[in-house]
UniProtKB/TrEMBL annotation:
Keywords: Coiled coil, Nucleotidyltransferase, RNA-binding, Transferase. One of its GO terms (biological process) is mitochondrial RNA 3'-end processing. The keyword rRNA-binding does not apply. Pfam families: KH_1, S1. One of its GO terms (cellular component) is mitochondrion. InterPro entries: KH_dom, KH_dom_type_1, KH_dom_type_1_sf, NA-bd_OB-fold, PNPase, S1_domain. Signal peptide: none annotated. Residues 29-56 form a coiled coil. Residues 135-203 form the S1 motif domain. This is Polyribonucleotide nucleotidyltransferase. GO terms for molecular function: 3'-5'-RNA exonuclease activity; polyribonucleotide nucleotidyltransferase activity; RNA binding.
Length: 218
């Protein structure tokens, strides 16, 4: 699991925004400094790449643009772009920005003002699925039943897969024997698959104390 995510934004003159999100209870200062320094190196490389892109994208215009960038897990690129590019187009229309996504998960943002850059980056970040931690416990609601399991909705509105193998300690032949749409079921987060989909377990929840509807704390 990732302990800390660092997002930077700025121009070729330097960094103007630093945003750090800690996934754990805390991060040692030396590790935080190391992460920021590493992100700064990535920022410099992104600026170099962006300047090359900018010369092509903005060729023929005299307008001055601000620049920012954000790196996301590659499995979430499709979610940020949206069907047929719909989400990126929406962000561009709302902020007056130009957004360029790369295969490594880096999104470059060009906009007429720093405020527009910040807003576009925020909207890109908001497009990502909610973050949950492995081992967290939730009271989830069943939203659909499949042959291979059920999809449940967590309290933070994130959808998760409850695989048939994680329903009970004994073998389950039919998901409908245990669950139906609308049921509330206690689950424990197992993690995420390669596509970023959250996986949960009812079987693990049966082994620990019941929850009250919110994530457990340790």
């Amino acid at each position: 699991m990732v302990d800390m995510q660092v997002h930077l934004a700025g121009t070729a003159d330097g960094i103007s925004i630093v945003h750090a999100a800690c996934q754990a209870a805390g991060v040692p200062l030396d590790r935080a400094i190391q992460a920021i320094r590493f992100a700064e190196l990535q920022h410099r490389e992104a600026v170099r790449q962006a300047e090359e892109i900018e010369s092509a994208v903005l060729k023929g215009t005299s307008q001055t643009f601000q620049f920012g960038n954000l790196s996301i897990p590659t499995e979430h690129i499709g979610r940020v772009i949206g069907s047929g590019g719909s989400n990126v187009k929406h962000i561009q229309d709302r902020t007056g920005s130009k957004i360029i996504g790369l295969e490594d998960g880096t999104f470059h943002v060009f906009a007429p003002s720093e405020h527009a850059v910040r807003e576009a980056l925020r909207m890109v970040q908001d497009s990502l699925p909610p973050v949950v931690k492995e081992g967290e416990r939730f009271l989830a609601k069943v939203v659909s039943i499949k042959d291979f399991g059920a999809f449940v909705l967590l309290p933070n509105k994130a959808e998760a897969l409850l695989h048939i193998s994680q329903l009970a300690h004994e073998r389950v032949r039919d998901v409908s024997d245990i669950l139906k749409v609308g049921d509330e079921v206690e689950v424990v987060v197992l993690g995420s698959d390669q596509r970023g989909n959250i996986r949960v377990s009812r079987k693990a929840a049966l082994e620990t104390a019941p929850c009250s509807g919110a994530a457990s704390t340790s």
